[in-house]
Design a protein that fits this description.
Blueprint (H helix, E strand, L loop, with lengths): L25 E5 L2 E5 L10 H17 L4 H13 L5 E2 L3 E3 L2 E7 L7 E6 L6 E6 H5 L6 E7 L5 E7 L6 E7 L5 E8 L3 E3 L5 E7 L5 E8 L8 E5 L6 E6 L5 E7 L4 E7 L8 E2 L9 E5 L3 E6 L7 E6 L8 E4 L6 E7 L3 E8 L2 E8 L5 E4 L7 E4 L9 E8 L2 E9 L5 E6 L11 E9 L5 E9 L10 E5 L16 H4 L4 E5 L9 H5 L7 H16 L8 E6 L1 H12 L6 E5 L5 H5 L20 H7 L15 E7 L8 H13 L6 E6 L10 H18 L10
Parallel strand pairs: 34-35, 34-36, 36-37, 37-38, 38-39
Antiparallel strand pairs: 1-2, 3-5, 4-5, 5-6, 6-7, 8-9, 9-10, 10-11, 12-13, 13-14, 14-15, 16-17, 17-18, 18-19, 20-21, 21-22, 22-23, 24-25, 25-26, 26-27, 28-29, 29-30, 30-31, 32-33, 33-35
Helix pairs in contact: 2-11, 6-7
Length: 697
């Protein structure tokens, strides 16, 4: 197969491809196959050959794209112009304070603030992330939680980009850091006494596996082990219920769950199990004041909600919201007086509101063809308002407060676009593309109002399709820089997500994973057939598991795209899934399969991008990674690019760009993130011939 030729020749290389260090191959036999990994040596992060290779690739990428430097700067300034740099979030009420965060021009991180009793009270900055980030190339917060009395703050801080958190305890009265606990994981929960709190730790593979109780003012050594999960298919998480009555401990796998609860006023109590795990049964827990609401797939493929009366000594499950084949129940939020259920119908979300007192039920629905809506910040259990955030490809994020009793909606804030945005200049399409097996794949599209469906327009096709994560049709300010230059932007809602309910997810994982890749290819062909674009103008994009998607498609149909942009891509599937010491691997045997099982190995071998690189023409390719990524290790994309360099037969650019300080999400600061987007977009514009010799575009 051959790749469609771009509308202009690839830029001349300024020097040869980056040289590889001496190859030290690894050879192993798996199910009778002799597997030779010529680039296994790239896993040695501390070896100077490895760092030298990554730096050489970065230098090469900079030189090959030097002619787009002016365009990158223009794109960056455009995208920055759509951001309200000095801004304020909508305040939320919780236990006597209004909490909010604000940003300031030229500061990369938010400032967390509150006011006691009224927004007219004096502002208290309880955590300035900019100040905490001084001296660090990377900084992220893994969670913040104020004590019930409002005087202490727990926050998780990572300065490594590899999810190595330190738990800090801050006195909000004096500003002093009282204690620091390194080596913790996501999840904290205060006990009601404001002296005890719970936290989690992870095993070497970064699997949350243990919950501990700590007493302020005491050494860490006596911390009490509250729960430990030894099953590597399950990971532990921890939170405090909105009601404030319980600490909730979840042990979740991809196919089963088990939850425990501890009263916050009795932190030394032994955790009580809500329901013992059963194979194939998943559930989540929400406390509603006098009962637990259980969101579960037990006897309900699209999930239902059961109720456990708190006073029932046997904690028997009672039906609360029955299963419906046409409605996917995504989750439940409980308040003192109401319950809000998030549902998905025909791929789009809505909310179901139930009144505790009278049992009355009504729906919150939305009119646009393609949109996204999600629950906002709702910390107050006593609230009679439900906050949600709504957006669409032509509607900037909009925060609403919804009166659960009257049904009145109040727009509290809509994201400002300082440089201007007229939704009338754009159009949104939603279509169903026929897949090869008869399924209909949803597609969301954003186009300029004057777009012509004559096949001449470039189009960016994005996909993910894994873990049941739904890719929403949200407002994307940066992507307008492509659309304003004539691009269409499409989302292929392929199987593996849950856009069309749990069956849509089940049909895109394990031994059905090929459906995700076939769906993406079939969507691309349908968009070409309908005149939205053509093969020499079509760009595929995905990140992480979406990087796997476009990586597999690059091997399956390299002729269908002029360029592929793979961000932190999971592409060395078999080698990674063979190594349970790596983060995520063991748990994800229930997502992708375990290659130690021959049936799974043979199936994975059909699509693993690294294993399927052959001597053929490939499109233009940009591959990004981060040196400290702890979810998809940097060596996966690095090895993939090395093998592509050795085997591909075309002259098209192949670039590997490594963020030497970032993590799975790239850099941590908002300005640095925009710079990276500008680089990717300039590459895309170059691939379709929209960069002039002087760098204009």
């Amino acid at each position: 197969m051959t790749t469609a030729v771009p509308h202009h020749p690839a830029p001349a290389r300024v020097r040869p491809e980056p040289p590889l260090a001496p190859i030290r191959p690894r050879v192993e036999v798996v199910h009778g196959d002799v597997r030779v990994d010529d680039y296994f040596w790239l896993r040695d992060k501390g070896h100077p050959d490895v760092l030298g290779y990554l730096e050489a690739e970065n230098a090469y990428a900079s030189e090959v794209t030097a002619h787009t430097a002016a365009l990158q700067e223009r794109l960056y300034q455009e995208m920055l112009g759509r951001i309200q740099e000095t801004d304020l979030s909508v305040p939320s009420w919780h236990r006597g304070f209004w909490y909010y965060q604000r940003t300031k021009t030229d500061l990369a991180y938010p400032i967390l603030c509150r006011r006691r009793g009224s927004m007219d009270a004096a502002e208290e900055v309880y955590l300035d992330q900019n100040a905490r980030a001084v001296g660090h190339r990377f900084h992220q917060l893994g969670g913040v939680e104020v004590s019930p009395d409002g005087n202490l703050l727990l926050f998780l801080e990572d300065t490594t980009a590899s999810l190595e958190f330190t738990l800090q305890v801050k006195d909000l009265l004096s500003g002093a850091i009282l204690e620091s606990l390194p080596g913790v994981w996501y999840g904290t929960a205060w006990a009601e006494d404001c002296r005890s709190f719970f936290y989690t730790t992870a095993d070497p593979a970064k699997r949350g596996h243990a919950v501990w109780r700590h007493l302020l003012g005491t050494p860490r050594d006596p911390d009490v082990l509250v729960f430990r999960e030894d099953d590597v298919l399950h990971s532990v998480s921890l939170t405090r219920s909105r009601s404030g009555r319980y600490v909730l401990i979840a042990s979740d796998g991809f196919t089963s769950s088990e939850w425990r609860v501890i009263p916050t006023n009795a932190p030394e109590d032994t955790p009580r199990i809500i329901a013992s795990r059963r194979v194939g049964v998943e559930y989540g827990v929400e406390h509603s004041g006098d009962a637990f609401l259980i969101h579960t797939n037990a006897e309900a493929r699209n999930f239902r909600i059961a109720r456990i009366a708190e006073a029932d000594p046997e904690w028997r499950w009672q039906e609360w919201l029955p299963h419906c084949e046409d409605v996917f129940v995504e989750g439940v939020e409980a308040f003192r007086h109401h319950v809000v259920v998030t549902e998905r119908v025909a791929g789009l979300r809505r909310f179901r509101v139930s009144d505790h007192a009278g049992g009355a039920v009504h729906l919150i629905e939305f009119p646009e063809t393609a949109y996204s809506v999600s629950a906002g910040v709702n910390p107050d259990f006593e609230s009679r308002c439900f906050r949600f955030t709504y957006s669409s490809p032509v509607t900037p994020p909009s925060v609403y407060d919804y009166d659960l009793g009257t049904g009145d909606r109040t727009l509290r804030k809509r994201q400002e676009i300082p440089s201007g945005f007229d939704p009338a200049g754009y159009q949104v399409h939603r279509l169903m593309a026929p897949a090869r097996d008869g399924a209909a794949v949803p597609v969301s599209l954003l186009l300029r109002r004057d777009a012509r469906l004559d096949g001449a327009s470039p189009l960016l096709l994005y996909g993910y399709g894994a873990y049941g994560n739904t890719t929403e049709a949200v407002f994307n300010g940066p992507v307008l820089s492509l659309v304003d230059r004539g691009f269409g932007v499409a989302i292929a809602h392929v199987r593996g997500g849950q856009e069309l309910g749990r069956p849509w997810y089940d049909a895109g994982k394990m031994l059905s994973k090929l459906n995700s890749f076939h769906d993406f290819i079939d969507v691309a062909e349908e968009l070409i057939r309908r005149g939205y674009t053509s093969a020499d103008r079509l760009i595929a994009n995905g990140g992480s598991a979406g990087g796997l998607l476009v990586g597999a498609v690059a091997n399956m149909r390299s002729d269908l795209f002029c360029a592929i942009v793979a961000e932190v891509p999971f592409v060395d599937v078999i080698n990674t899934m063979l190594d349970p010491t790596l983060p995520l691997t063991a748990q994800e045997w229930e997502q992708w399969g375990n290659p130690r099982v021959e049936r799974d190995y043979r199936y994975l071998l059909q699509y693993s991008p690294y294993d399927n690189v052959t001597s053929r023409d490939y499109p233009w390719m940009l591959v990004t990674t981060s040196l400290n990524d702890s979810q998809v290790m940097y060596w996966e994309p690095a090895k993939w690019v090395a093998r592509l360099r050795a085997l591909k037969t075309d002259p098209h650019p192949l670039l590997l760009r490594t963020n030497m300080a970032g993590g799975h999400g790239g850099p941590s600061g908002r300005y640095d993130r925009l710079r990276e987007v500008a680089f990717r977009y300039a590459f895309m514009l170059d691939a379709v011939g929209l960069v002039e010799p002087d760098g204009a575009g």
